């Protein structure tokens, strides 16, 4: 009354080698590598750097000079309600503004129907020529 507890083979047969790979250590190593990768990846910073003033500015002693640039629906540029005939005249006026020690404020007022490239061209020219006090006026028409 013997009992065969093994694989059901005769005791005289050679044991077969195990043909499958032990996956547990491989999975452990992969998990450790994934955790290390997640820890070392830098956090993505989706922000825009702005040059903001530090502290509170002193109260203005005099009223600032304001230059208004209007961009009409067809791309016509008006400098203080005077038509600017071409781009070179606009750049000359912007150079004059940038050359002043205390630059006047430039208020850019685009029309609601104007193409974006006309407004972007004015802003790019102002930035390239060194105008630092520029702002968009009349944004409530776009809401």
Description:
- This protein has a domain at 66-138: 2-Layer Sandwich (Nucleotidyltransferase, domain 5).
- The protein is 31% helix and 15% strand.
- It has 3 helices and 5 strands, in the order αβββαβαβ.
- The chain has helices at residues 24-40, 87-99, 116-129; strands at 66-71, 77-79, 82-84, 105-110, 134-136.
- The protein has a 5-stranded mixed sheet with strand order 3-2-1-4-5.
- A hairpin with a 5-residue loop joins strand 1 and strand 2 (77-79).
- Helix 2 packs parallel to helix 3 (116-129).
- The longest helix has 17 residues, at 24-40.
What distinguishing features does this structure have?
143 residues, alpha/beta, Nucleotidyltransferase, domain 5, 5-stranded mixed sheet, 3 helices, 15% strand
Q: Give the number of helices.
A: 3
Which strand-content bin applies to the residues? Answer: 5-15%
Query: Remind me, CATH topology of the domain at 66-138?
Result: Nucleotidyltransferase, domain 5
Radius of gyration (Å)? 36 Å
Q: How are the strands ordered across the major sheet? A: 3-2-1-4-5
The major beta sheet can be summarized as: 5 strands, mixed
